[in-house]
Amino acid sequence: MAVYKDEKTNTWMVYYRVTDWKGDRKQSTKRGFPTKREALAWEREFLNKTQADLSMTFASFIETYTVDMKNRIKENTWQTKEHIIRTKILPYFGKRKISDIQPRDIIA
User: Fold this and answer.
1) Distance between CA atoms of 84 and 65, rounded to whole angstroms?
2) CA–CA separation, 6 vs 51, rounded Å?
C-alpha cells in the first residue's frame, strides 16, 4: 500500500492491492482525503479489516459484522440489534481495540 498526494486536486490518495475469492490480486485506489493523516488512518483500518486482526477497533468490527449479518436476519430483528449496538455498546467500546477488551470490562 502507498499514500500519494494528487497535485491536481490537492488531496491524498491510497493505492492498495486486494486478493479476491479466486486468488487474483487486484489494485484499487481510494481518493479524496484532505490530509495525509486521514489517508494513513483509512489505510490502517482497511488492513485491519482485511486481515481480521484483533488490533482493529471495535467500531471497525461492527462495520464488518453489519455487512455480514444485515442480510441474514429479518429486518425487525436487525433494527433491534442495531439499536442496542449503537446506543449501548458502541459508546463504551467503539474506540477500543478488540485485543484490549477484557472480560471484566464487559461485566462492568
Assistant:
1) 14
2) 28
Q: DSSP string covering 47-78, please?
A: HHHHHT-TTSBHHHHHHHHHHHHTTTS-HHHH
Q: Is the whole model's pTM more than 0.90, yes or no?
A: no
Distance separating alpha carbons of residues 14 and 45, to the nearest angstrom: 12
Read off the pLDDT of residues 60-96 as tens digits, 9 standing for 90 and up: 888 888 888 888 899 999 999 999 999 998 898 888 8
Contacts of 25 (CB under 8 A, 6+ apart): 17, 18, 19
28, three cell numbers: 484499487
Q: Please say if the pLDDT value at position 104 is more than 80.
A: yes
Q: What secondary structure letter does DSSP report for 97?
A: B
Q: Using 50, 70 and 90 to split pLDDT, how confident is the model at 12? A: very high
Phi, psi of 98 (to 5 degrees): -60, -35
Helix (H) or strand (E) holding 27: strand 25-33
